[in-house]
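[Q] Does anyone have a clean structure-token version of this?
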Amino acid sequence: MIYFDHAATSGIKPPAVIEAIVDCLKNANANPGRSSHSLSIKAAEIIYRTREVVGELFNFPETENIILTKNATEALNLAIYGTLGSGGGEAITTSMEHNSVLRPLNRLREKGLIRLKIVEGDTNGLILPQKIEEAISDNTRLVIATAASNVCGSRLDLEGILQVCQSKGVKLLVDAAQGAGAIEIDLAKTPFDFLAITGHKHLFGPQGTGALIIKEPDSLEPFMCGGTGSLSEKTIQPDFPPDKFEAGTLNTPGCAGLCAGIEFILSEGLNKIISREQHLVSYLLDKLSGIEEAKVYAAEVTDRVAVVSFNLEGAMPSEVSHYLDRKWQIYTRPGLHCAPQAHQTLGSFPQGTVRISLSYFNTEQEIDTAIEALKSYVRTRS
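[A] Here you go.
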């Protein structure tokens, strides 16, 4: 088995992640923050430690402003609806965004609550900060930008976009689903207003985990209300973080796994992981360039994460991916990757692409096998 679908979910986890989940279910299987007995306290300690390691990874010491969610989609919706849901104003985003951004924005637009502007990227999926600056008006309340494309891997100039937003007094929400754990994000250096992350991709955690990191929680409305274990005598939502945004029981086993995944990154060293993944994606791009029938999208982009999209001449992406799966046990993802406008930008709509997304745990030998498999597929069609 060769797993090349890490942009969907990291298929290879550090053993400590699995061990932490199992240990939690065996030895801390209680509701955190709901009781005073020792097992509940142990569960609460797992939640607290998870916030600590998230804060450590992103250099964000205000751990109470780290809101634990079930994924990046929930985190994005919390920031979008919490900022724009009351109506009025304008949002700006890019053509490289995932539907986790575009769908909530379009829902608000369709309800007449906001005006929406989408800044188009170039054919490499890159967005000039100047284009966002030109789109900002006096009514703009929020800019939303992805850290890196889940389709072609191109990174956006977040530092430049942040400078534009700060100069215009506009809040910036960064979708780091493909960036967290794959690029350096230091919130002391780049203090985004909101950072949405998922736990199950490059952070090596399990599915059902994520977070929204909020710079100024007082300015954000809660997306959901309910039990928190605090202020139980009141029937209104607490107004302090994280309780203000965390209604209902948290995913303690998932947080245990996410905590272990981030601790693995901190132990190995983020720079070491990034360097390894950059080497692998460069190796893959070089090998793909030797297949005449392969069209690689954003192939010349060097500032990228380890995500590559391509097509083979005359073949549907689903056919290629199916062949790799059934004949070679190589797992890739074909199609539009929940990002139709990104594919329109890249010129791969409506058929989509075959996507290979790599991880720290992949090898050059696995890439060599995939290249052999693709050449084999081309021969079967000749």
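[Q] Thanks! Anything notable?
[A] The mean pLDDT is 97.
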